[in-house]
Amino acid sequence: MNNQQMMELTTVEKSEFEQLVSECTRSGSIDSNLYIEYDVKRGLRDSNGNGVLTGLTEISDVCGCHSVNGRKIPVDGELYFQGYNVEDIIKGSSRDRFRFEEVTYLLLFGSLPDDKQFESFLRILTDLQELSGAFIRDVIMKATSANLMNSLMKSILSLYSYDENPDDISVPNVLRQSLQLIAKMPLLAVYAYQAYRHYKLDGTLMIKNPKKGYSTAENILYMLRDDGQFSELEAKVLDICLVLHAEHGGGNNSTFTTHVVTSSGTDTYSAISASIASLKGPKHGGANLKVQKMFADIEANCKDWEDREEVCAYLNKILDKEAFDKAGLIYGMGHAVYTNSDPREVILKRFAKRLSEEKGMQREFALYELVEKEAGELIMHKRKLFKPVCANVDFYSGFVYSMLGIPEELFTPIFAIARISGWCAHRLEELVNAGKIIRPAYKYVGHHRPYCTMQDRNEGKQPR
Ligand SMILES: CC(=O)SCCNC(=O)CCNC(=O)[C@H](O)C(C)(C)COP(=O)(O)OP(=O)(O)OC[C@H]1O[C@@H](n2cnc3c(N)ncnc32)[C@H](O)[C@@H]1OP(=O)(O)O
Ligand SMILES: O=C([O-])CC(=O)C(=O)O
C-alpha cells in the first residue's frame, strides 16, 4: 500500500459512503431555534455579539468600543500590551532592531526591560536558538506537509520527547520550556519551509544556523534567503510585524485554546501545538494566506482593478458563496472586538503603501485599498449588521510579506512565531493563578431511548 492509498477509503463503495455522510449530517444537526430557546451563547457571545466574560488578564487590552451610558459606541481600535499602547511601543522603542524581543520580555515579565535585563534576556534566547542535527533530520525533514502549520505542530509535539522534564508544570519549568519554544520557533518554521521547498518544489535544500547577534526578524530573513542578505528596512518591517502579531488578549481563539488546554494540567508542548492548530484556521491567523489567495482570484477575475463597480460585483459574488472558496467570507475583513479600525492594520497599511511604492506594486496596493474601502459596507449590507466592519491585521500582512519576498507558505507560521510569546505569557498567567479546569456546559437536546435490539434494527424499527 502506498502513502496515498493509506489515506483513502478504498474498500467503501461511493454510494455506501454517501449514505454514511448523510446519516452523519442528519445525526449532527440541531434545530437552530433551540439555541434561542435555551439562550445558548453561541461562539461564547451574548446576543449583541460581545464575548462572554470567561477570564481576567493583565497581559493585554483590546479596545474596539467605548461605553457611554451603558451603550457601546464604535471607536478606532486600540491595543495595549501590559498597559502600553502598541503604537507607542513601536514609536518609542530605542531598540530599533529588537522590538519583538523587547515586547516578548514585556509580555512575559510585565515591564519593559532596562539594558542589563535586556542583554541577559537576549543572551538566553540566543543560547536557546539551536536545534540538533538529529532533530532536524529525524523530525523536520520527515513527512513534510504543504501547510507548514502542521509541520510546526509536529515539531513542537516531538520536542516533548527531547525534554528530560516535559510534564512538570511548575512555573520555573514552564518558563524554561516557553523560552525554548520562543527561541526555536523561527528555526522550526524556516527549516520546515526549506524541507518543503526541497521535497515538494524540487528546490535546493538549505539549512543555515541562525546568526548570533541577529534579531528574530533578521534571522528569519537570513535563514530563508539563499544569499542570507536583507536590507535594514526589510528587517525593520518584519520586526514590527512580529510585534503587531505578538499578543491579542485572552479571548482570541488560539489564546483561549492555550487557556483551555493549560487548564487541564497538560504539558507545554501539547498546549502550544493546540494553539497552533487553532491559529491555522482561516477565520483566525490562517486568514492571511486566504487573503493572498483571494486577491489572486480577484485579480484574475476582474478585468479593470480600478473599476469600483466591477470589483464590488465580484465581492458580492464572494459574499453570496458564488466565487473564490465559496465560504461567503471576504478574508481580512471583520473582527470580533474591533469596530471602526484594527490599529495593527492601520500600521501595516502604512508599510504596505511604502513598500508597494518601492517595489513598483502601486496597482496591487490600489486594489487592496479599494477592497478595504468597499468590503465593510458590502458585508454590513449583506449580513444586515449595524456594527461597522473594518479590515483586520490579516488584510495587509500577506501583501507586506510577499513584498519582503517571504513565500506564502510562511505567512501563518510567521504569525505563530510572534504569537507564541502571547500564548506563553497566557499559559504562565493561567498556571500562576492556578485556574479551575475550563469546563462550560452543553445542554442535551436529544431524546433518551430504550436500547434497540439487533432484530429491531434489521427490521428498520430503530426510533429516530
Ligand atoms: C488574527 C485574526 O484572527 S483577525 C480575523 C481574521 N479572519 C478573517 O479575516 C476571516 C473573515 N472574517 C470573519 O470570518 C469574521 O469577521 C471574524 C471571524 C473575524 C469575526 O467574526 P464574528 O465575531 O462572528 O463577527 P461578527 O459578529 O461581526 O459577524 C457578524 C456576521 O457577519 C459575518 N461576517 C463577519 N465578517 C465577515 C466577512 N469578512 N465576510 C463575510 N461575512 C462576514 C459573520 O459571518 C456573521 O454572519 P452570521 O451572523 O450570518 O453568522
Ligand atoms: O482577537 C481576535 O479574535 C483575533 C485577533 O485579532 C488576533 O488574535 O490577533
From TrEMBL:
Protein name: Citrate synthase
Pathway(s) served: Carbohydrate metabolism; tricarboxylic acid cycle
Keywords: Transferase
InterPro entries listed in its UniProt record: Citrate_synth-like_lrg_a-sub, Citrate_synth-like_sm_a-sub, Citrate_synthase, Citrate_synthase_bac-typ, Citrate_synthase_sf
Cross-referenced NCBIfam families: PRK14032.1
Top-level taxon of the source organism: Bacteria
Species lineage: Bacteria, Bacillati, Bacillota, Clostridia, Lachnospirales
Catalytic activity of the protein: oxaloacetate + acetyl-CoA + H2O = citrate + CoA + H(+)
Family: Belongs to the citrate synthase family.
